[in-house]
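Lecture 7, part B: from sequences to assemblies.

Below are the input chains for today's worked example.
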Amino acid sequence: MDLVLPDVGLIFWMTLAFLILVFILGKFGWKPILGMLKKREDTIAEALNEANKTREEMKLLKADNELLLKQAKEERDSILSEARKISQKMYDEAKEKANQEADNIIQSAKEAIQFEKMKAMVDIKNTIAELSVDVAEKVIIQELKDKQTQTTYVNRLLEDIKLN
Amino acid sequence: MRIYNYLTRIYKVLPFSLFIFIFLFLVPNLHANENDVDAEKKFDAGTTIMEHVVDAHEWHILTIGDKHVSIPLPIILLHENKLHVFSSSRFHHGESTYKGFAIHKKNGIKDEIIKVDENGERNENASFVDFSITKNVLTLFMSVIVLCWLLLSAARSYKKNGHGSPKGAARIVEPLLLFVRDDIIKPSIGPKYEKFLPYLLTLFFFILFNNLFGLIPFFPGGANLTGNISVTFVLAFFTLIITNVSGNKHYWKHVFNTPGVPWWLKFPLPLMPIVELVGLITKPVVLMIRLFANITAGHIITLGFISLIFILGEISVAVGYGVSVASIIFYIFMGLLELLVAFIQAYVFTLLSSIYIGMAVEEHPEEENSITEIH
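Predicted structure of the full complex, as structure tokens:
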């Protein structure tokens, strides 16, 4: 029974000692320890936050870089295709021009040939006329003796010329 | 390689075996001495155990022959508004009186100071209060000093060390502190836990330290402080006060006008309020009894195993030797179990205190809203 009966003296000392303990530890023990622990937890949380933020930024930066690279690639491709197009165009144009030039040359050559041909024809005609006159002269000189024959002959000649 | 392993294993258990051997040689000697000095006096296990478990006015360390080696403790008595302070050695182990006071063993177990008249007869009518620094009070003071030293040096190491990794005493304190704060107090109380941290942390460390201190079988340990009903009463009383002082509107409404209960349980006979008020008192009473009973039971069982050696040794010395081996093994087993119990009881007391406080400060936003609506 003595075991379960409280002692006034022990209760008194226990209350006093425990209150003092709570006071001393609360003021000089728990407060700085918990404060420091909180500070440390905050620091760790902050560091983790910072790391997360940096990671996000890195991700963003990487995305940016990729975008930039993609853009650069696209630009390069577009420039290349543009250049290819331009060169094609130039080639086509040059080809066209060359063709035209060739056509022109051919045309003028044809014209020149025509001209020369005409000139030659005129020359030939003139020569023929001269020859004809010469022939006629000779004929006339030879055949003027016979008037009838002469006339027939001249007429026939004239007809021939007309047929030409 | 196998031999090396075997040797290291032996080396590891060597301290334990040495401990057992020392006991084997020591125990029969003590026993023999007791027999030689007082052949009539039989070993009374019950009295011995109870003497160890209850409080005392002197700190008995050991007995060599018929010489008692004990530390006298200060006796402080408040008698008729006068304070009497003197050493307990004045009583000469209960053989003499001093200033009209004497000491005797109540029911043959517990020290009790009594007032005696000139004839040496007990004066039953004298009323005085015993504020003596008993064995438990001295242990209490020592534990307060050691706890202050431990935690203040931890605090100092934190101040010196900034918020780096813990050093020195902080290494012992921090894991326990974080465990108590994050796994006991925070989940039990909720967002308002910070106000109660100093009390609950002190509570946990005080109980744990004294539980462990009580397991040390020799001076300065061995006192059954946390297994004393007065000590657990004070601790439970603090929890009761803090719980009810910090109780909010909802908590008191729950006590006096329990919601969800038919009205005829509250009026005209206030059955529910009575039940709730009884529950209010029961909670700390259970706390008080649980800690007291667990720690005292642990002390009694371990002492029982040791007493077994003496009881059987009285029958035959050889049997005493034989049983000592088994007793020591059981004692070590119980010691390890008590180590666990020391932690568990500190944990349970703090956890339940936190839960009671948590129930008192818990917010019920949806109910309060409905109350304001009714108003």
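Note for the exam: Residues 24-40, 368-375 of chain B have pLDDT under 50 and may be disordered. Keep this in mind when comparing with the next example.
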